[in-house]
Amino acid sequence: MNENNSGLLNYIELLKSHEAALKSKLLAGDKSKSDRWLFIGLVGMVLVSFGAMGGYMLIKPSGRWLIDLSIVLIALSYVVLILMPIIKIYQQRNTIKYFFTMPLSASVEQNIKKEALTDERFLADFVRLGKPTLELGLLEIKHEREFLSKRINLIVGPVDKLGILPGIISMVITLAKPVAGHDWVMGLAYGYIGLVVLSLSFINLLVKYDRVISLTEVALSCCDEVKGDVQG
């Protein structure tokens, strides 16, 4: 039992090292830095907007400027959400022609190469942990991933399927007519942007889980191949 516990701890430490190495590679470029700062700015505007709304609730009916500031910040948050993919396209403008002429090669270069090199570097370390440890680690991480997915669905619901369109529509309606009290449309605009920000964070976490699950499964198949070669 102690050996299994030690192996599982080694598996967890290896997962941490793999995540750190992958993160350092992905964050090395200027494009990733701009994405990170845009997301930080988005989160900051949403938090300040909610804070301004809370301040207005405490001192209303005075402090009307707080709710005006809050609405402006929420509107800017939706603008940032729209601009994020546009900025991404602009940053990669030099590869757009290459993407249309050789789409598979461009996709591999942009989205797969860095991750694949990191996975290849760590694969041998995973295999050395042995099949029993990998099977136990895979069981635990799959269970945690499923549990996390259920919690995320409970919080954000179908936001990832609907996109940001409902929030944008409610924000346009909020800006187009005077706000009397706390209109449900305005509430939808506020609540939806919060759910979108949470969804962006959660989806990134789920993608990380899926990656290490796949890497562990590859390592397990390598263990089977090594065992077959030895028996042969």
From TrEMBL:
Record's keyword terms, sorted = Membrane, Transmembrane, Transmembrane helix
Which residue windows are transmembrane per the record? 37-59, 65-87, 152-176, 188-207
User: What domain of life does the native source organism fall in?
Assistant: Bacteria
The name this protein carries in UniProt is: Uncharacterized protein
Q: What organism does the UniProt record list as the source? A: Klebsiella oxytoca
